[in-house]
Write a sequence for this structure.
């Protein structure tokens, strides 16, 4: 039967081609949008795993909105079960052009706390910051690529300071002393500088954006998180679990948006298969009638028509994956030179795409196949 | 004589044309025995095509029954109909009705596919039948590359493929010239002499004159049923 299906498909090359193209476009969208959402999921997963052991302490009013005085660091440290705590100051690298999806960020941390912050992240070149370093910086791999910087080069950091009603932008060059390896987390977009330099440069006095608290071994992070909140005033804590939940929630929305856009595109492709199949079935009314007169069973005809639709779905899926994969590949390549990567095509995504396109083909072949199969041979043969 | 291959009993068909009933067939009965070569003739509207579609399970009668090989085909359910069609009946149509995308060989092959005949056997039988029809050098041609006579011979080969109890031919010479017509009728005659039961519906008297039995229909009834002498 397969040879007949194949014959029918190749018989109408242009029409089949257009239909396959329709499905391919849909799957293309699935790959590109899905790849984007997969990438975000991966990045957050890795970022969370890097910071999973720490409790975040924020000022009570909003995220990054307020500032925490460094005295709070000592208060947090005093809470029983806290092994260590340190402040982090975070600011946008270029406040005048905030990048898509966050962009690069300056992270000010006490150089001694780097091993705790970055865990076992290694450097691809140069050295880490050390106590007493001035306007020096260690770059994330994406930042280094974006500006094409090596150890020894200089990077310009801007700060916006509000003075009376207007804001003045200061710019200053920092010397790059090291570049980190690719981690797949948000540290790739980080520009690490010493905390005291950051506070001075951003004119933040002795305040920090948030505090990271490292729990003692064998201390439950959830419990500790609550204890810190009770013991220290005017702060809010995020345990690793809360953080994960928070991020997952926002990721779900993002994933839903991208996936539904992609699915919509794919459904349009499916409709084009249905349209083609309906046309081709009505064109072959006589053929199906004849087959029934020759003794074809309903399932024979269903198999033939649905097989045709399914093959178009699969071919469309393959074309879409190749097209989407190529676009993602070149776009990632291009974006990497700008310092970000947006897509990851995971095996899971590939499987979903191919299953989805086949399913789409079969589903949209269902109704045309039903029409073909229920055709009365008498009617069909009379039809000229 | 032995059991009839085809037995028609009190067959009636009434269509509703709007609110007016049209009696296409009225109480038709007759028997056909193995190896018979008969024709049903009659003017347009005499009910011969309706009759053929009843026998071929393409349509259901209002009353009466048709038996093929002892099976009451008019009672067959929709799921049984395909099996009866492919095992008991071979169709030959006026417009040949070959599948245009398939070669002569594949057209014959297709009929056996539906009967789930294994591939090697199908091919063997298709080649044998087409050779018998004198088409051994045309087997891989598509219908569009064949003449009307050749197409009809492919259609006859296809009808024969599953060794049916009876071949039903609806105006098989309606679209070919007289020379081809004669050739096709001779071919069918030859098959009937080998024991194949063949029923032709035609309004071409030159065709019916060569069959061995002529049933003349008029207004949905059998007007006459005559054995042709001399054969």
């Amino acid at each position: 039967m397969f040879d007949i299906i194949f014959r029918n498909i190749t018989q109408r090359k242009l029409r089949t081609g257009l239909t396959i193209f329709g499905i391919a476009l849909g799957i293309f969208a699935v790959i590109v949008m899905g790849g984007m959402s997969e990438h975000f999921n991966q990045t957050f997963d890795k970022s969370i795993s890097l910071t999973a052991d720490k409790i975040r302490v924020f000022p009570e009013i909003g995220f990054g909105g307020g500032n925490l005085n460094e005295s709070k660091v000592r208060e947090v440290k005093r809470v029983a079960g806290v092994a260590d705590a340190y402040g982090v100051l975070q600011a946008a690298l270029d406040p005048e052009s905030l990048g898509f999806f966050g962009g690069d960020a300056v992270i000010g941390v006490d150089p001694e706390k780097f091993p705790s912050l970055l865990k076992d992240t290694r450097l691809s070149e140069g050295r880490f910051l050390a106590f007493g370093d001035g306007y020096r910086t260690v770059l994330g791999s994406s930042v280094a690529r974006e500006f094409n910087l090596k150890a020894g080069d200089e990077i310009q950091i801007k700060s916006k300071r509000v003075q009376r009603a207007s804001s003045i932008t200061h710019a200053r060059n920092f010397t790059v002393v090291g570049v980190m390896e690719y981690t797949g987390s948000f540290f790739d977009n980080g520009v690490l500088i010493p905390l005291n330099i950051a506070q001075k440069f951003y004119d933040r006095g002795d305040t920090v954006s948030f505090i990271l608290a490292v729990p003692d071994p064998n201390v439950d992070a959830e419990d500790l998180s609550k204890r810190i909140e009770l013991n220290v005033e005017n702060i809010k804590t995020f345990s690793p679990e809360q953080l994960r939940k928070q991020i997952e929630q926002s990721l779900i929305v993002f994933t839903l948006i991208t996936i539904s856009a992609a699915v919509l595109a794919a459904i349009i492709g499916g409709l084009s298969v249905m349209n083609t199949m309906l046309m081709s079935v009505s064109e072959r009314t006589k053929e199906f009638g004849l087959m029934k007169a020759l003794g074809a069973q309903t399932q024979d005809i269903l198999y033939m028509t649905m097989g045709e639709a399914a093959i178009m779905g699969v071919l469309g899926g393959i074309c879409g994956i190749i097209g989407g994969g190529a676009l993602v590949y070149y776009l990632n390549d291009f974006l990497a030179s700008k310092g970000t990567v947006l897509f990851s095509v995971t095996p899971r995504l590939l499987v979903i795409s191919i299953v989805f396109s086949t399913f789409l083909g079969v589903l949209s072949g269902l109704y045309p196949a039903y029409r073909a199969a229920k055709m009365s041979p008498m009617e069909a043969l009379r039809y000229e | 004589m032995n059991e009839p291959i085809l037995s028609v009993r009190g067959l009636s068909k009434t269509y509703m044309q709007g609110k007016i009933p049209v009696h296409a067939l009225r109480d038709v009965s007759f028997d056909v025995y193995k190896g018979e070569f008969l024709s049903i003739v009659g003017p347009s509207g005499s009910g011969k095509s309706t009759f053929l579609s009843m026998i071929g399970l393409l349509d259901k009668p209002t009353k009466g029954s048709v038996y093929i090989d002892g099976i009451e085909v008019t009672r067959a359910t929709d799921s049984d109909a395909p099996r009866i069609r492919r095992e008991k009946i071979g169709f030959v149509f006026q417009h040949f009705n070959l599948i245009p995308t398939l070669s002569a060989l594949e057209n014959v092959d297709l009929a056996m596919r539906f009967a789930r005949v294994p591939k090697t056997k199908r091919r063997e039988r298709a080649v044998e039948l087409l050779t018998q029809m004198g088409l051994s050098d045309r087997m891989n041609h598509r219908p569009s590359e064949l003449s009307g006579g050749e197409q009809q011979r492919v259609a006859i080969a296809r009808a024969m493929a599953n060794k049916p109890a009876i071949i039903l031919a609806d105006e098989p010479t309606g679209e070919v010239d007289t020379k081809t017509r004669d050739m096709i009728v001779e071919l069918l005659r030859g098959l009937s002499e080998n024991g194949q039961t063949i029923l032709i519906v035609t309004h071409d008297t030159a065709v019916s004159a060569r069959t061995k039995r002529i049933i003349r229909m008029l207004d949905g009834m059998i007007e006459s049923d005559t054995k042709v002498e001399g054969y």
In short: Chain A touches chain B at residues 1, 4, 7-8, 11, 286-287, 290-298, 300, 376-378, 381, 384 (CB under 8 Å). Chain A has a mean pLDDT of 82.
